[in-house]
């Protein structure tokens, strides 16, 4: 990526986000591109609700379904299918799910770990209703994004 690409999309939920950022920056330096603009984009699950518990109730089934599908797709055909992921086993610390304050704090922490340029997330996870998705996006745009921009010193795109 550092030699040919014009940016990097990194998973923000796997625990190696900062380490990946440092590796990308080192590779850019090795290829003489350390001074270039090279967007580092964080990708993850974000869902905002006024009540943290309700946020988890809404997206828990969707995240469990999505993780189960990814595990199946990543398994060789001749291997046994992985067991389904249960909602109660989800590592919630990997997801930005909660109140506007909690999600904003998570994004600010993530930015301190690795100063990403953009954050992308599913606007509507499986089983989330249209109305729930719209409310999530409204809260993200009006309450989360301004807090994050203010904390990390960024202007709106």
From TrEMBL:
GO MF term list: oxidoreductase activity, acting on paired donors, with incorporation or reduction of molecular oxygen
Ranges in coiled-coil conformation: none
InterPro entries for the chain: Luciferase-like_dom (IPR011251), Luciferase-like_sf (IPR036661)
Gene3D superfamilies: Luciferase-like domain (3.20.20.30)
Domain Luciferase-like: 1-112
UniProt name for this protein: Luciferase-like domain-containing protein
Native source species: uncultured Rubrobacteraceae bacterium
